[in-house]
Specification:
Layout: H1 2-5, H2 10-18, H3 28-39, H4 41-53, H5 63-77, H6 84-93, H7 96-105, H8 116-123, H9 139-145, H10 147-152
Helix pairs in contact: 2-3, 4-5, 5-8, 6-8
């Protein structure tokens, strides 16, 4: 009980970090950066990004749930600006039928689609895209972008 009532150091830490910026220059971005620094959110986001590389569709998963899981991971990792790379991650996470479906829908390749949400919207309506044989998720992309993740055993 005594431990639960102990005062947190977060207020002191916040005051220390925020004092580096003059009061008149403190906008929301400065406050967010201070909180990121104190809680070390960047470290957490890196772990979430590693989860993106290993993302895969679960067997017989509802397409809407798949899309929500992917969007949530992207938001947590703050990776919305990765555009076409996210489209490629989606492609790699699907079973064979899903990949074939995307190949038909995007003849130039899904990797060229900047708006990954349009790919997710298309998949959310296709239950058959989540059937077929499966490969280990994200291995191709992880080998290109995060070989250290493969060495650690992620994916």
């Amino acid at each position: 009980m005594r431990r639960a009532l102990k005062k947190s150091r977060l207020v002191k830490d916040y005051d220390l970090v925020i004092s580096r910026t003059p009061f008149e220059d403190r906008d929301w971005k400065v406050v967010c950066a201070a909180i990121d620094e104190i809680l070390q959110l960047q470290t957490i986001r890196q772990e979430v990004k590693l989860q993106l590389f290993g993302f895969r569709a679960n067997k017989d998963e509802d397409p809407i749930i798949y899309c929500k899981r992917f969007k949530d991971l992207v938001k947590m990792a703050q990776a919305e600006d990765m555009g076409r790379h996210l489209s490629e991650l989606i492609y790699q996470s699907l079973p064979t039928q899903g990949r074939e479906f995307l190949d038909r829908e995007y003849p130039d390749g899904v990797q060229k689609v900047e708006d990954y949400t349009s790919v997710l919207d298309l998949l959310s309506k296709m239950h058959s895209a989540f059937k077929g044989s499966r490969t280990q998720a994200g291995m191709h992309i992880a080998a290109r972008w995060a070989p250290h993740a493969l060495a650690k055993g992620y994916g």
